[in-house]
Amino acid sequence: MSLRKTLPAFGLATRDSNIRSLVISTRHGYHRSVQALHPTKTNTQEEHVSFSNKISIDFEQTKEAYKSKDTLELLRSLVVFKLCSYDILVDKNKEIIDLSRKLLGQKMFEQFMKMTFYGQFVAGEDHQSIRPVVQKNQAYGVGAVLDYSVEEDLSQEDAERKEMESCMSTSEKESPGADHQEKFTAHRKFGDRREGVTSARTYFYADEAKCDQLMETFLKCIKASGGSSEDGFSAIKMTALGRPQFLLQFSEVLVKWRRFFSFLATKQGKDGVEVLEQKLDLEQLQTCLARLGAQGNIQSCFSDGRLHSSGMVDMLDWNSLIDERTKISDLLVVPNLQTGQLEPLLSKFTEEEEKQMKRMLQRLDVLAKHAVENGVRLMVDAEQTYFQPAISRLTVEMKRIFNRDKAVVFNTYQCYLKEAFDNVSMDVELSRREGWCFAAKLVRGAYMYQERGRAAEIGYEDPINPDYECTNRMYHRCLDYVLEEIEQNKKANVMVASHNIDTVKHTLRRMNEMGLAPTDKKVYFGQLLGMCDQISFPLAQAGFPVYKYVPYGPVNEVIPYLSRRAQENRGIMKGVQMERDLLWKELMRRLSNGEVFYTPAV
């Protein structure tokens, strides 16, 4: 398959058939302008309004931090956090839970969990029972990101089997020696994606009916968020919405496509510079491809004003070539570094596999439309690096449609990744050119141990930053970049999803320097329910938009989530005593002031 034959299929002849028409079967008339839009400052933006009332928050004022909690809730927090600091209890938590259930019986066990771990970290069993928690937090200025945290209780063997079956195509099963990057190939040893993950729920593909069921669950979550919390969020995971084979293969395509551009940039002496600074001269690109044996005129692919900068091709221009395809399986075409030709990733694609891919995109569209109808923002969670390129790309496609006037769809960027800044900066630049609202949640990441172990075992480069300090610097670099974009272009939005007090203080300092006010509602803060109240509530009382990630679901079905909360808290509470110290301080203050029976005003 030569460039002459394949490049027209990337959009020159079929402008009305693109990814977005596949994502939304009912929007065949929707068209996206691809002209390069430079960010232009209006008169209002040019007038830098001085934010004279600099925000300064004392995060050690326990009376304010814990005014939403009665004394029993303080005691519960202290007990739970202390238990989480004991290694033997955390390591044996599943055995202890099973033994407790046998000794207490199901009813007493559930009551005990609601008084302790479940009550600390989970809001309730369904969208009705979570309302008291959500509304109490909201009374103190803290919103909700609703997250239905039920997971299927699978053995490791069953999880591995399901993962291997769902991540291999028919052609791969028939030709197991197919040439794929090892990173984007299913491996049984790492088939149980729950291993080494501390804060993210995991879904395994069963069938299309199960995906429809999970979509309905997300729809109920969106409706509950719209009904119980003003300007709320609802979290979704893309691996719940379809067969992960598509995400795996599309990710491989996107990574190879990007690496081919980097290969061509190196040929023009543009290696070692920031990704958006890698700009290829169009004539030199034509010459280079011809030397590789490619046929056709690459210059014709960038006619009709498609280039952001005349005569130069950057990564976003290059990526636009893969936008326009008539079938989803046609997206799975990759460049060959040796020949410069485009080749199919798979030897063949079944009709059922094509339908499965299309259904995943349609489910995404249904969720986004319901989010708009219910006044809810949609938070797309990050996942493993072998799925994430496809997840991020599909999320961008949703942003192009639903974020035209305001931020509805938020993508999650994991800052422990070496490529985090490149990912953020490219998406910000794309939003500038195309005129939609950039919206991000910044996290450090949930899959570090799993990602490192997989990379070492299989033999590809570790995608994770070398140490925690590097991750901190990456987080602040990404955050600063988005804050600067908010300062210059008020269409950007960011949620600082962090329990790190230094990161929160860094954000406040930078907002003060830039004159960004809390009331602009462009910078949000997010923490988990049951953790870091000494950060969340003082921020909310100072006028910042603050949200708690609010898990909910039946007691027995959220046990895997609670198990990971215990593991995560062990690491946090052994290294950071601040939260426990503040809880003790507030408890002693209430005892000394005769406020033991304090009841929060709601």
User: What's the helix count?
Assistant: 24
Q: Structural class from helices and strands?
A: alpha/beta
Mean pLDDT: 79
**Main beta-sheet strand count, sense and barrel state:** 8 strands, parallel, barrel
Within the largest sheet, what's the order of strands?
1-2-7-8-9-10-11-12
Nutshell version of this structure?
Its cofactor is FAD. With 602 residues, this protein is of the alpha/beta class.
Structure commentary:
With 602 residues, this protein is of the alpha/beta class. It has 24 helices and 12 strands. The protein has helices at residues 3-6, 19-23, 43-46, 62-65, 71-84, 87-91, 93-115, 117-121, 131-139, 156-166, 170-174, 208-228, 244-267, 282-291, 315-319, 351-373, 388-402, 420-434, 448-458, 468-488, 501-514, 533-541, 559-575, 578-592; strands spanning 142-148, 233-236, 280-281, 312-313, 333-335, 342-344, 377-380, 409-414, 439-443, 493-497, 523-528, 546-552. The strands form 3 sheets. Strands 1-2-7-8-9-10-11-12 form an 8-stranded parallel beta barrel, surrounded by 8 helices. Its main location: mitochondrion.
Provide the fold topology.
Blueprint: H1 3-6, H2 19-23, H3 43-46, H4 62-65, H5 71-84, H6 87-91, H7 93-115, H8 117-121, H9 131-139, E1 142-148, H10 156-166, H11 170-174, H12 208-228, E2 233-236, H13 244-267, E3 280-281, H14 282-291, E4 312-313, H15 315-319, E5 333-335, E6 342-344, H16 351-373, E7 377-380, H17 388-402, E8 409-414, H18 420-434, E9 439-443, H19 448-458, H20 468-488, E10 493-497, H21 501-514, E11 523-528, H22 533-541, E12 546-552, H23 559-575, H24 578-592
Parallel strand pairs: 1-2, 1-12, 2-7, 7-8, 8-9, 9-10, 10-11, 11-12
Antiparallel strand pairs: 3-4, 5-6
GO biological process, one term: L-proline catabolic process to L-glutamate
Keywords: Acetylation, FAD, Flavoprotein, Mitochondrion, Oxidoreductase, Proline metabolism, Transit peptide
Function: Converts proline to delta-1-pyrroline-5-carboxylate.
